[in-house]
Design a protein that fits this description.
By secondary structure, the protein is mostly helical. Helix content is 72%, strand content 0%. Helix 1 packs across helix 2, helix 4 runs parallel beside helix 6 and helix 10 packs parallel to helix 12.
Length: 249
């Protein structure tokens, strides 16, 4: 059971650590909170906190809770503002949050433009997260594609963004390092049927290597194993229609 009163009181605490802890609870359990308006009011207020660590925690929480917040227009405006924050970590997590929340953002063109702007940020991790989020957005756009040509184009754009993100970052676990070989493998299975097996096996090894050190190691390993199973179906993919491709991505 989520103790919303405790979370609310922590949001009002003078101790930044308490406010950060409250934001972590909002990030992880927003969907379980009874009074979402109160929770949203707390989250919105803390996006303008004087402490940069609180603001980047608020950016993370926004990305996770965006689909649940009552006022998505205000949430979007908060995220947009945080992409121009003076603090590197705030911009980094705002970029990641835009990738998570993109499908629910009211102004998708501005969100796309914000992410592109951040790909030229002075900080390499901000650039990496921005490219990673652009890749996630491209995967979303592929899921909305109405033609095979558009689907292929968006998938290939995602792979390009994942490739840049994988090269840019210096932090310990870089999710793009897993996503890159994963989506390369998927692209190969779908669009390069004849030479798929050898190429995908190589990408699978890259994906397994990238999993090392991940907190979600088991989940990612299962994803890789599922992709390996897809190799057995390569010979059946020649007549795969667009909707089936979307379901497999």
């Amino acid at each position: 059971m989520v103790d919303q009163e405790k979370i609310h009181n922590q949001c009002l605490s003078k101790d930044p650590k308490e406010r950060i802890h409250a934001l972590e609870q909002l990030e992880n359990f927003f969907s379980l909170i009874p009074d979402k308006q109160q929770a949203w009011d707390d989250l919105h207020r803390l996006t303008s906190d004087e402490d940069s660590d609180v603001r980047f925690s608020a950016a993370k929480a926004l990305g996770s809770a965006f689909s649940q917040v009552p006022d998505k227009q205000q949430a979007w405006e908060d995220l947009h503002r945080l992409t121009s924050d003076e603090d590197t970590l705030v911009r980094r997590w705002a970029a990641e949050a835009l990738g998570s929340a993109f499908s629910h953002v009211p102004d998708k063109q501005q969100a796309w433009d914000d992410l592109h702007r951040l790909t030229s940020d002075e900080d390499s991790d901000v650039r990496s997260y921005s490219n990673y989020s652009l890749a996630r957005v491209s995967i979303f756009m592929a899921s909305q594609a109405e033609t095979d040509e558009d689907y292929k184009k968006e998938l290939e754009k995602a792979i390009e963004f994942f490739e840049i993100a994988a090269k840019e970052a210096y932090y310990f676990y870089n999710p793009a390092q897993f996503c890159l070989p994963f989506y390369r493998s998927f692209h190969t299975i779908i669009f390069k049927k004849q030479e798929a097996r050898e190429e995908v096996n190589r990408y699978l090894e890259e994906a397994k290597s990238a999993i090392k050190g991940s907190e979600s190691k088991k989940l990612l390993f299962e994803a890789v194993q599922n992709l390996a199973e897809a190799l057995k179906e390569v010979h059946n993919l020649e007549n795969l229609d667009l909707e089936a491709k979307k379901r497999r991505a």
